Automatic annotation (TrEMBL):
It comes from Paenibacillus taichungensis. GO terms for molecular function: DNA binding; monoacylglycerol lipase activity. Gene3D superfamilies: alpha/beta hydrolase, Winged helix-like DNA-binding domain superfamily/Winged helix DNA-binding domain. This is AB hydrolase-1 domain-containing protein. It comes from the Bacteria. Keywords: Coiled coil, Transcription, Transcription regulation. The keyword Lipid metabolism does not apply.
Protein backbone atom coordinates (compact mmCIF):
# COMPACT_ATOMS: atom_id res chain seq x y z
CA UNK A 1 0.00 0.00 0.00
CA UNK A 2 1.17 3.54 -0.79
CA UNK A 3 0.50 6.62 1.34
CA UNK A 4 1.35 10.30 1.06
CA UNK A 5 1.12 12.89 3.83
CA UNK A 6 -1.26 15.72 2.90
CA UNK A 7 -1.74 18.28 5.66
CA UNK A 8 -3.44 16.47 8.55
CA UNK A 9 -3.94 13.06 6.85
CA UNK A 10 -2.20 10.27 4.98
CA UNK A 11 -3.87 9.57 1.64
CA UNK A 12 -3.98 5.97 0.50
CA UNK A 13 -3.36 5.71 -3.24
CA UNK A 14 -2.22 3.37 -6.01
CA UNK A 15 -0.74 4.18 -9.41
CA UNK A 16 -0.81 1.68 -12.28
CA UNK A 17 1.67 2.10 -15.12
CA UNK A 18 0.83 0.93 -18.63
CA UNK A 19 3.71 0.01 -20.92
CA UNK A 20 2.63 2.00 -23.98
CA UNK A 21 0.30 4.62 -22.48
CA UNK A 22 0.74 8.35 -22.96
CA UNK A 23 -2.25 9.65 -20.99
CA UNK A 24 -3.19 9.27 -17.33
CA UNK A 25 -6.64 8.72 -15.84
CA UNK A 26 -7.33 9.90 -12.28
CA UNK A 27 -10.33 8.10 -10.76
CA UNK A 28 -12.32 9.64 -7.88
CA UNK A 29 -14.79 7.35 -6.10
CA UNK A 30 -18.17 8.29 -4.60
CA UNK A 31 -19.25 8.92 -1.02
CA UNK A 32 -19.18 5.80 1.13
CA UNK A 33 -17.07 3.85 -1.36
CA UNK A 34 -13.33 3.32 -1.80
CA UNK A 35 -10.69 3.00 -4.49
CA UNK A 36 -11.03 -0.80 -4.31
CA UNK A 37 -14.37 -0.56 -6.12
CA UNK A 38 -12.63 0.49 -9.37
CA UNK A 39 -11.18 -3.02 -9.73
CA UNK A 40 -13.70 -4.32 -12.34
CA UNK A 41 -12.85 -1.58 -14.85
CA UNK A 42 -9.08 -1.27 -14.27
CA UNK A 43 -8.00 -4.07 -16.67
CA UNK A 44 -9.84 -2.35 -19.53
CA UNK A 45 -8.24 1.03 -18.79
CA UNK A 46 -4.71 -0.36 -18.51
CA UNK A 47 -4.65 -1.29 -22.20
CA UNK A 48 -4.37 2.41 -23.04
CA UNK A 49 -3.71 4.50 -19.92
CA UNK A 50 -1.78 4.95 -16.72
CA UNK A 51 -4.31 4.97 -13.88
CA UNK A 52 -4.31 6.64 -10.46
CA UNK A 53 -6.82 5.62 -7.79
CA UNK A 54 -7.02 6.79 -4.18
CA UNK A 55 -9.25 6.83 -1.11
CA UNK A 56 -10.93 10.13 -0.34
CA UNK A 57 -10.54 11.69 3.09
CA UNK A 58 -12.42 9.57 5.65
CA UNK A 59 -12.84 6.63 3.24
CA UNK A 60 -11.06 3.31 2.83
CA UNK A 61 -7.53 3.50 4.25
CA UNK A 62 -7.33 7.31 4.17
CA UNK A 63 -7.66 9.11 7.50
CA UNK A 64 -10.52 11.49 8.28
CA UNK A 65 -8.32 14.19 9.79
CA UNK A 66 -9.49 17.04 11.98
CA UNK A 67 -10.32 19.67 9.35
CA UNK A 68 -13.91 20.78 8.79
CA UNK A 69 -15.25 19.38 5.54
CA UNK A 70 -15.58 21.71 2.57
CA UNK A 71 -15.42 21.41 -1.20
CA UNK A 72 -12.13 23.30 -1.10
CA UNK A 73 -10.64 20.81 1.37
CA UNK A 74 -11.37 17.81 -0.86
CA UNK A 75 -10.17 19.61 -4.00
CA UNK A 76 -6.96 20.61 -2.24
CA UNK A 77 -6.39 17.00 -1.11
CA UNK A 78 -6.60 15.87 -4.72
CA UNK A 79 -4.27 18.58 -5.97
CA UNK A 80 -1.65 17.83 -3.32
CA UNK A 81 -1.70 14.17 -4.40
CA UNK A 82 -1.31 15.19 -8.06
CA UNK A 83 1.66 17.39 -7.16
CA UNK A 84 3.28 14.56 -5.20
CA UNK A 85 2.87 12.24 -8.22
CA UNK A 86 4.19 14.97 -10.57
CA UNK A 87 1.06 14.78 -12.72
CA UNK A 88 0.64 17.95 -14.74
CA UNK A 89 -1.97 16.98 -17.35
CA UNK A 90 -4.57 14.21 -16.99
CA UNK A 91 -8.16 13.07 -17.49
CA UNK A 92 -10.50 13.09 -14.48
CA UNK A 93 -13.16 10.41 -13.94
CA UNK A 94 -15.52 10.76 -10.99
CA UNK A 95 -18.47 8.77 -9.66
CA UNK A 96 -21.28 10.42 -7.69
CA UNK A 97 -19.69 12.71 -5.11
CA UNK A 98 -16.40 12.11 -6.92
CA UNK A 99 -17.98 13.44 -10.12
CA UNK A 100 -18.93 16.67 -8.33
CA UNK A 101 -15.33 16.93 -7.09
CA UNK A 102 -14.16 16.36 -10.66
CA UNK A 103 -16.07 19.43 -11.85
CA UNK A 104 -14.91 21.57 -8.94
CA UNK A 105 -11.27 20.52 -9.45
CA UNK A 106 -11.46 21.28 -13.18
CA UNK A 107 -12.77 24.79 -12.43
CA UNK A 108 -9.91 25.61 -10.07
CA UNK A 109 -7.11 23.87 -11.98
CA UNK A 110 -8.23 24.26 -15.60
CA UNK A 111 -4.72 23.96 -16.99
CA UNK A 112 -4.18 20.48 -15.53
CA UNK A 113 -7.32 18.79 -16.86
CA UNK A 114 -7.61 17.38 -20.39
CA UNK A 115 -11.20 16.11 -20.10
CA UNK A 116 -13.71 15.09 -17.47
CA UNK A 117 -15.94 12.03 -17.31
CA UNK A 118 -18.92 12.14 -14.95
CA UNK A 119 -20.45 8.86 -13.76
CA UNK A 120 -23.87 9.29 -12.11
CA UNK A 121 -23.11 12.87 -11.12
CA UNK A 122 -25.81 14.41 -8.91
CA UNK A 123 -27.58 16.71 -11.35
CA UNK A 124 -30.90 18.14 -10.22
CA UNK A 125 -32.33 17.52 -6.76
CA UNK A 126 -34.71 19.92 -4.98
CA UNK A 127 -33.70 20.87 -1.44
CA UNK A 128 -36.62 18.89 -0.07
CA UNK A 129 -35.45 15.76 -1.92
CA UNK A 130 -31.95 16.09 -0.45
CA UNK A 131 -33.39 16.60 3.05
CA UNK A 132 -35.59 13.52 2.68
CA UNK A 133 -32.66 11.50 1.31
CA UNK A 134 -30.45 12.41 4.25
CA UNK A 135 -33.19 11.75 6.79
CA UNK A 136 -34.03 8.29 5.40
CA UNK A 137 -30.35 7.31 5.45
CA UNK A 138 -29.91 8.61 8.99
CA UNK A 139 -32.70 6.28 10.09
CA UNK A 140 -30.77 3.32 8.66
CA UNK A 141 -27.61 4.34 10.53
CA UNK A 142 -29.24 5.43 13.80
CA UNK A 143 -27.70 2.45 15.65
CA UNK A 144 -24.25 3.95 15.08
CA UNK A 145 -23.39 1.23 12.57
CA UNK A 146 -23.23 1.83 8.83
CA UNK A 147 -24.04 -1.81 8.03
CA UNK A 148 -27.84 -1.47 7.55
CA UNK A 149 -27.29 1.58 5.33
CA UNK A 150 -24.44 -0.18 3.53
CA UNK A 151 -26.60 -3.15 2.59
CA UNK A 152 -29.41 -0.89 1.46
CA UNK A 153 -27.13 1.34 -0.61
CA UNK A 154 -25.35 -1.57 -2.28
CA UNK A 155 -28.66 -2.74 -3.76
CA UNK A 156 -29.12 0.64 -5.45
CA UNK A 157 -25.53 1.01 -6.60
CA UNK A 158 -25.11 -2.25 -8.52
CA UNK A 159 -27.19 -4.93 -10.16
CA UNK A 160 -24.77 -7.59 -8.95
CA UNK A 161 -26.39 -10.18 -6.64
CA UNK A 162 -26.03 -9.74 -2.89
CA UNK A 163 -23.88 -12.89 -2.63
CA UNK A 164 -21.31 -11.61 -5.15
CA UNK A 165 -17.85 -10.53 -4.03
CA UNK A 166 -18.20 -7.01 -5.48
CA UNK A 167 -21.49 -6.50 -3.61
CA UNK A 168 -19.75 -7.42 -0.36
CA UNK A 169 -16.91 -5.02 -1.19
CA UNK A 170 -19.44 -2.19 -1.51
CA UNK A 171 -20.93 -3.12 1.87
CA UNK A 172 -17.46 -3.29 3.41
CA UNK A 173 -16.49 0.10 1.97
CA UNK A 174 -19.57 1.77 3.46
CA UNK A 175 -18.96 0.06 6.79
CA UNK A 176 -15.48 1.64 6.99
CA UNK A 177 -16.93 5.16 6.84
CA UNK A 178 -18.28 6.67 10.05
CA UNK A 179 -21.86 8.01 10.02
CA UNK A 180 -20.49 11.43 10.96
CA UNK A 181 -18.18 11.53 7.93
CA UNK A 182 -20.89 10.26 5.60
CA UNK A 183 -23.48 12.85 6.58
CA UNK A 184 -20.99 15.72 6.81
CA UNK A 185 -20.31 15.16 3.11
CA UNK A 186 -24.03 15.25 2.34
CA UNK A 187 -24.26 18.55 4.21
CA UNK A 188 -22.01 20.07 1.53
CA UNK A 189 -24.82 19.60 -1.00
CA UNK A 190 -27.23 21.53 1.23
CA UNK A 191 -25.14 24.67 0.90
CA UNK A 192 -24.26 24.21 -2.77
CA UNK A 193 -26.91 22.93 -5.23
CA UNK A 194 -25.50 19.95 -7.17
CA UNK A 195 -26.29 21.46 -10.57
CA UNK A 196 -24.52 24.76 -9.90
CA UNK A 197 -21.24 23.63 -11.49
CA UNK A 198 -22.53 22.66 -14.93
CA UNK A 199 -22.59 26.12 -16.47
CA UNK A 200 -18.88 26.52 -15.61
CA UNK A 201 -17.76 23.41 -17.50
CA UNK A 202 -14.94 24.41 -19.86
CA UNK A 203 -13.48 21.00 -20.72
CA UNK A 204 -14.66 18.22 -23.02
CA UNK A 205 -17.12 16.35 -20.81
CA UNK A 206 -18.77 12.95 -21.02
CA UNK A 207 -21.65 11.99 -18.71
CA UNK A 208 -22.62 8.34 -18.24
CA UNK A 209 -25.69 7.11 -16.37
CA UNK A 210 -27.11 3.60 -15.97
CA UNK A 211 -30.47 2.86 -17.56
CA UNK A 212 -31.61 1.21 -14.30
CA UNK A 213 -30.64 4.23 -12.23
CA UNK A 214 -34.00 6.08 -12.42
CA UNK A 215 -33.24 8.80 -9.86
CA UNK A 216 -30.12 10.01 -11.62
CA UNK A 217 -31.57 9.55 -15.09
CA UNK A 218 -34.57 11.69 -14.13
CA UNK A 219 -32.37 14.33 -12.51
CA UNK A 220 -30.25 14.49 -15.68
CA UNK A 221 -33.38 15.11 -17.74
CA UNK A 222 -34.27 18.00 -15.44
CA UNK A 223 -30.86 19.64 -15.65
CA UNK A 224 -30.69 21.73 -18.80
CA UNK A 225 -27.15 22.93 -18.07
CA UNK A 226 -25.85 19.36 -17.88
CA UNK A 227 -27.58 18.32 -21.08
CA UNK A 228 -26.33 21.37 -22.97
CA UNK A 229 -22.75 21.31 -21.65
CA UNK A 230 -21.92 17.59 -21.89
CA UNK A 231 -22.28 14.53 -24.04
CA UNK A 232 -24.71 12.22 -22.22
CA UNK A 233 -24.79 8.46 -22.82
CA UNK A 234 -27.06 5.93 -21.10
CA UNK A 235 -25.38 2.62 -20.25
CA UNK A 236 -27.62 -0.44 -20.81
CA UNK A 237 -28.09 -3.17 -18.21
CA UNK A 238 -26.54 -1.01 -15.51
CA UNK A 239 -27.54 0.70 -12.30
CA UNK A 240 -25.71 3.57 -10.58
CA UNK A 241 -22.17 2.16 -10.74
CA UNK A 242 -21.75 1.68 -14.49
CA UNK A 243 -18.06 0.86 -13.95
CA UNK A 244 -19.12 -2.20 -11.93
CA UNK A 245 -22.17 -3.38 -13.88
CA UNK A 246 -20.74 -2.71 -17.36
CA UNK A 247 -16.97 -2.23 -16.96
CA UNK A 248 -15.97 -3.21 -20.50
CA UNK A 249 -18.58 -1.07 -22.26
CA UNK A 250 -17.97 1.87 -19.92
CA UNK A 251 -14.22 1.73 -20.55
CA UNK A 252 -14.77 1.51 -24.32
CA UNK A 253 -17.08 4.54 -24.35
CA UNK A 254 -14.66 6.54 -22.22
CA UNK A 255 -11.75 5.59 -24.50
CA UNK A 256 -13.73 6.55 -27.62
CA UNK A 257 -14.56 9.90 -26.04
CA UNK A 258 -10.96 10.61 -25.03
CA UNK A 259 -9.75 9.75 -28.53
CA UNK A 260 -12.28 12.13 -30.07
CA UNK A 261 -13.15 14.64 -27.35
CA UNK A 262 -15.91 17.11 -28.02
CA UNK A 263 -16.15 20.39 -26.19
CA UNK A 264 -19.87 21.05 -26.21
CA UNK A 265 -20.26 24.79 -26.62
CA UNK A 266 -23.64 26.13 -27.56
CA UNK A 267 -23.95 29.07 -29.89
CA UNK A 268 -26.21 31.12 -27.69
CA UNK A 269 -26.86 33.51 -30.52
CA UNK A 270 -28.68 30.86 -32.49
CA UNK A 271 -32.42 30.46 -32.37
CA UNK A 272 -32.12 26.70 -31.84
CA UNK A 273 -29.87 27.02 -28.82
CA UNK A 274 -31.93 29.75 -27.19
CA UNK A 275 -35.00 27.69 -27.90
CA UNK A 276 -33.53 24.65 -26.18
CA UNK A 277 -32.60 26.66 -23.09
CA UNK A 278 -36.03 28.30 -23.01
CA UNK A 279 -37.77 24.95 -23.20
CA UNK A 280 -35.67 23.54 -20.37
CA UNK A 281 -36.21 26.67 -18.24
CA UNK A 282 -39.94 26.30 -18.75
CA UNK A 283 -39.65 22.63 -17.83
CA UNK A 284 -37.92 23.66 -14.60
CA UNK A 285 -40.76 26.05 -13.75
CA UNK A 286 -43.35 23.33 -14.31
CA UNK A 287 -41.26 20.93 -12.26
CA UNK A 288 -41.02 23.37 -9.34
CA UNK A 289 -44.80 23.82 -9.38
CA UNK A 290 -45.16 20.05 -9.28
CA UNK A 291 -42.67 19.78 -6.40
CA UNK A 292 -44.62 22.37 -4.42
CA UNK A 293 -47.85 20.47 -4.98
CA UNK A 294 -46.15 17.22 -4.02
CA UNK A 295 -44.92 18.84 -0.83
CA UNK A 296 -48.54 19.50 0.16
CA UNK A 297 -49.62 15.97 -0.72
CA UNK A 298 -50.43 13.46 2.01
CA UNK A 299 -48.21 10.36 2.08
CA UNK A 300 -50.26 7.27 2.92
CA UNK A 301 -48.23 4.10 3.58
CA UNK A 302 -50.23 0.87 3.83
CA UNK A 303 -48.07 -2.21 4.44
CA UNK A 304 -49.49 -5.70 4.83
CA UNK A 305 -47.03 -8.08 3.17
CA UNK A 306 -45.74 -9.33 6.54
CA UNK A 307 -47.90 -7.37 9.00
CA UNK A 308 -50.59 -4.71 8.79
CA UNK A 309 -49.20 -1.20 9.37
CA UNK A 310 -50.55 2.20 8.36
CA UNK A 311 -48.86 5.59 8.53
CA UNK A 312 -50.01 9.02 7.39
CA UNK A 313 -47.10 11.40 6.73
CA UNK A 314 -44.84 9.03 8.71
CA UNK A 315 -47.18 9.03 11.74
CA UNK A 316 -48.36 5.48 12.51
CA UNK A 317 -51.97 4.69 13.34
CA UNK A 318 -51.91 1.57 15.51
CA UNK A 319 -55.41 1.31 16.98
CA UNK A 320 -58.96 1.13 15.70
CA UNK A 321 -58.44 -1.09 12.66
CA UNK A 322 -60.47 -4.06 13.87
CA UNK A 323 -63.67 -2.03 14.14
CA UNK A 324 -66.32 -1.35 11.51
CA UNK A 325 -64.38 -3.00 8.69
CA UNK A 326 -61.77 -0.21 8.71
CA UNK A 327 -58.90 -2.54 7.80
CA UNK A 328 -60.81 -4.26 4.98
CA UNK A 329 -61.99 -0.94 3.56
CA UNK A 330 -58.53 0.62 3.52
CA UNK A 331 -56.98 -2.47 1.93
CA UNK A 332 -59.64 -2.48 -0.79
CA UNK A 333 -58.99 1.22 -1.44
CA UNK A 334 -55.25 0.52 -1.58
CA UNK A 335 -55.87 -1.63 -4.65
CA UNK A 336 -58.70 0.55 -5.97
CA UNK A 337 -57.95 4.19 -5.18
CA UNK A 338 -61.11 5.24 -6.99
CA UNK A 339 -64.08 2.90 -6.84
CA UNK A 340 -67.86 2.84 -6.43
CA UNK A 341 -69.89 2.10 -3.34
CA UNK A 342 -71.50 -0.88 -5.08
CA UNK A 343 -68.11 -2.38 -5.98
CA UNK A 344 -67.05 -2.15 -2.34
CA UNK A 345 -70.25 -3.85 -1.19
CA UNK A 346 -69.96 -6.61 -3.81
CA UNK A 347 -66.40 -7.39 -2.75
CA UNK A 348 -66.57 -6.94 1.03
CA UNK A 349 -70.18 -7.82 1.83
CA UNK A 350 -71.37 -10.18 -0.94
CA UNK A 351 -73.90 -11.97 1.28
CA UNK A 352 -75.57 -8.80 2.58
CA UNK A 353 -78.50 -7.38 0.56
CA UNK A 354 -77.21 -4.42 -1.46
CA UNK A 355 -79.52 -1.80 0.08
CA UNK A 356 -78.56 -2.82 3.60
CA UNK A 357 -74.86 -3.06 2.65
CA UNK A 358 -74.92 0.48 1.20
CA UNK A 359 -76.52 1.85 4.38
CA UNK A 360 -73.92 0.08 6.52
CA UNK A 361 -71.13 1.37 4.27
CA UNK A 362 -72.02 4.98 5.14
CA UNK A 363 -71.26 4.24 8.79
CA UNK A 364 -68.06 2.35 7.96
CA UNK A 365 -66.75 5.15 5.72
CA UNK A 366 -67.44 7.83 8.33
CA UNK A 367 -65.48 5.79 10.88
CA UNK A 368 -62.58 5.27 8.45
CA UNK A 369 -62.51 8.99 7.63
CA UNK A 370 -62.14 9.89 11.32
CA UNK A 371 -59.44 7.26 11.72
CA UNK A 372 -57.16 8.47 8.93
CA UNK A 373 -57.82 12.21 8.69
CA UNK A 374 -55.10 14.64 9.81
CA UNK A 375 -56.38 17.21 12.29
CA UNK A 376 -54.30 20.17 11.09
CA UNK A 377 -54.88 19.49 7.38
CA UNK A 378 -57.59 21.12 5.29
CA UNK A 379 -57.35 18.35 2.68
CA UNK A 380 -59.53 15.30 3.16
CA UNK A 381 -57.86 11.94 2.50
CA UNK A 382 -61.10 10.03 1.99
CA UNK A 383 -63.25 11.52 -0.78
CA UNK A 384 -66.87 10.40 -1.21
CA UNK A 385 -70.00 11.32 -3.13
CA UNK A 386 -73.29 9.50 -3.62
CA UNK A 387 -71.70 6.94 -5.93
CA UNK A 388 -67.90 7.03 -5.63
CA UNK A 389 -65.25 6.55 -2.96
CA UNK A 390 -61.61 7.59 -3.45
CA UNK A 391 -58.34 7.95 -1.55
CA UNK A 392 -56.57 11.26 -2.20
CA UNK A 393 -52.84 11.47 -1.64
CA UNK A 394 -49.67 9.58 -2.49
CA UNK A 395 -50.55 6.00 -1.58
CA UNK A 396 -47.70 3.51 -1.17
CA UNK A 397 -47.63 -0.13 -0.15
CA UNK A 398 -45.11 -2.96 0.18
CA UNK A 399 -47.58 -5.30 -1.55
CA UNK A 400 -48.03 -2.96 -4.51
CA UNK A 401 -44.25 -2.66 -4.75
CA UNK A 402 -43.87 -6.46 -4.73
CA UNK A 403 -46.44 -6.75 -7.50
CA UNK A 404 -44.57 -4.12 -9.53
CA UNK A 405 -41.22 -5.86 -8.95
CA UNK A 406 -42.67 -9.20 -10.06
CA UNK A 407 -43.99 -7.64 -13.26
CA UNK A 408 -40.58 -6.08 -13.98
CA UNK A 409 -38.89 -9.45 -13.52
CA UNK A 410 -41.45 -11.18 -15.73
CA UNK A 411 -40.87 -8.86 -18.69
CA UNK A 412 -37.07 -8.61 -18.28
CA UNK A 413 -35.52 -10.04 -21.45
CA UNK A 414 -31.98 -10.50 -20.16
CA UNK A 415 -31.69 -13.79 -18.27
CA UNK A 416 -28.83 -12.46 -16.15
CA UNK A 417 -30.80 -9.45 -14.97
CA UNK A 418 -33.95 -11.54 -14.55
CA UNK A 419 -31.99 -13.85 -12.22
CA UNK A 420 -30.64 -10.92 -10.21
CA UNK A 421 -34.09 -9.37 -9.88
CA UNK A 422 -35.61 -12.67 -8.79
CA UNK A 423 -32.92 -13.31 -6.18
CA UNK A 424 -33.51 -9.87 -4.69
CA UNK A 425 -37.30 -10.35 -4.67
CA UNK A 426 -37.28 -13.92 -3.34
CA UNK A 427 -34.71 -13.24 -0.61
CA UNK A 428 -37.07 -10.65 0.88
CA UNK A 429 -40.24 -12.75 0.72
CA UNK A 430 -41.88 -13.86 3.97
CA UNK A 431 -42.92 -17.47 4.59
CA UNK A 432 -46.59 -16.43 4.54
CA UNK A 433 -47.97 -13.68 2.33
CA UNK A 434 -50.54 -11.25 3.76
CA UNK A 435 -50.84 -13.00 7.16
CA UNK A 436 -53.95 -12.48 9.25
CA UNK A 437 -56.08 -11.32 6.31
CA UNK A 438 -58.87 -13.68 5.27
CA UNK A 439 -61.46 -11.75 3.26
CA UNK A 440 -62.48 -13.66 0.14
CA UNK A 441 -61.13 -11.00 -2.20
CA UNK A 442 -57.83 -10.91 -0.26
CA UNK A 443 -57.58 -14.70 -0.53
CA UNK A 444 -58.02 -14.43 -4.29
CA UNK A 445 -55.32 -11.77 -4.50
CA UNK A 446 -52.97 -13.86 -2.32
CA UNK A 447 -53.49 -16.82 -4.68
CA UNK A 448 -52.73 -14.59 -7.66
CA UNK A 449 -49.56 -13.27 -6.00
CA UNK A 450 -48.39 -16.77 -5.09
CA UNK A 451 -49.02 -17.98 -8.65
CA UNK A 452 -46.92 -15.09 -10.01
CA UNK A 453 -44.07 -15.99 -7.67
CA UNK A 454 -44.25 -19.70 -8.47
CA UNK A 455 -44.36 -19.17 -12.25
CA UNK A 456 -41.38 -16.81 -12.08
CA UNK A 457 -39.44 -19.14 -9.76
CA UNK A 458 -40.01 -22.08 -12.13
CA UNK A 459 -38.87 -19.99 -15.10
CA UNK A 460 -35.57 -18.94 -13.53
CA UNK A 461 -35.05 -22.42 -12.05
CA UNK A 462 -35.13 -23.82 -15.58
CA UNK A 463 -32.71 -21.12 -16.76
CA UNK A 464 -30.24 -22.10 -14.04
CA UNK A 465 -30.71 -25.82 -14.70
CA UNK A 466 -29.96 -25.34 -18.40
CA UNK A 467 -26.78 -23.49 -17.41
CA UNK A 468 -25.73 -26.33 -15.15
CA UNK A 469 -26.19 -24.29 -11.96
CA UNK A 470 -28.03 -27.05 -10.12
CA UNK A 471 -27.73 -25.60 -6.62
CA UNK A 472 -29.24 -22.31 -7.77
CA UNK A 473 -31.99 -24.14 -9.65
CA UNK A 474 -32.87 -26.06 -6.47
CA UNK A 475 -33.09 -22.77 -4.56
CA UNK A 476 -35.66 -21.38 -7.00
CA UNK A 477 -37.70 -24.61 -7.00
CA UNK A 478 -37.75 -24.46 -3.19
CA UNK A 479 -39.11 -20.91 -3.41
CA UNK A 480 -41.92 -22.23 -5.60
CA UNK A 481 -42.57 -25.10 -3.17
CA UNK A 482 -42.90 -22.62 -0.31
CA UNK A 483 -46.09 -21.29 -1.88
CA UNK A 484 -47.26 -24.42 -3.75
CA UNK A 485 -46.29 -27.20 -1.31
CA UNK A 486 -48.87 -29.56 -2.80
CA UNK A 487 -47.35 -29.44 -6.31
CA UNK A 488 -45.94 -32.94 -6.93
CA UNK A 489 -44.22 -31.87 -10.14
CA UNK A 490 -42.13 -29.36 -8.20
CA UNK A 491 -41.16 -32.06 -5.71
CA UNK A 492 -40.16 -34.44 -8.50
CA UNK A 493 -38.03 -31.80 -10.25
CA UNK A 494 -36.31 -30.85 -7.00
CA UNK A 495 -35.54 -34.47 -6.10
CA UNK A 496 -34.18 -35.07 -9.60
CA UNK A 497 -31.85 -32.07 -9.27
CA UNK A 498 -30.65 -33.23 -5.84
CA UNK A 499 -29.80 -36.63 -7.35
CA UNK A 500 -27.94 -35.01 -10.26
CA UNK A 501 -26.05 -32.81 -7.81
CA UNK A 502 -25.16 -35.79 -5.63
CA UNK A 503 -23.99 -37.85 -8.61
CA UNK A 504 -21.86 -34.96 -9.81
CA UNK A 505 -20.20 -34.63 -6.40
CA UNK A 506 -19.55 -38.38 -6.27
CA UNK A 507 -17.99 -38.29 -9.74
CA UNK A 508 -15.73 -35.44 -8.65
CA UNK A 509 -14.67 -37.43 -5.58
CA UNK A 510 -13.99 -40.48 -7.75
CA UNK A 511 -11.89 -38.46 -10.17
CA UNK A 512 -9.92 -36.95 -7.29
CA UNK A 513 -9.25 -40.40 -5.79
CA UNK A 514 -8.08 -41.74 -9.16
CA UNK A 515 -5.73 -38.78 -9.62
CA UNK A 516 -4.30 -39.30 -6.14
CA UNK A 517 -3.69 -42.99 -6.86
CA UNK A 518 -2.02 -42.17 -10.15
CA UNK A 519 0.15 -39.62 -8.38
CA UNK A 520 1.32 -42.19 -5.80
CA UNK A 521 2.08 -44.74 -8.51
Amino acid sequence: MSFVQVKDIKIHYQIYKSQYAMDTLVLIHGVGLSMELWEPILPYFLHNYHVVIFDLRGHGETERGTSDFSWELFVDDINKLMEFLHLEFFHLIGHGFGATLTMKYSQKYKEKVKSIILLAVPAFFPRKSIDALIESRKVLSCSGSMLPLAQNMAKGITMEPSDSSIFQKIVNAYSMVTPETYFQIFDLYLDTPPNGDFEFIRHPTLSLVGVHDPIYLTSYTLSSKLLIQTRLLVVPHSSNAVFIDQPKLTAEWIHDFIQKPVLVRSNYGSFESNGAVSVMDYFHEVYEIGINKLGKQTIIQVDFLTAFRVSINNEYIWDGWNQRYAKSLLLFLTFNQTTTREQICDSLFPEVPLKQALNNLKVYLNYLRKLIEIAESNNSILMTDKEHVAIRGSLRSDVLKLNSDLQKAQIEKSNDFKLNLCKEIFNALPETLLPGLYDDWINLYRDKLENQIVDLAKEVAEIERDRGNLQSSIYFYNVALRYHPEDEWLYDETILLYEQLKNGVERQKGNRVRKEKMGRS
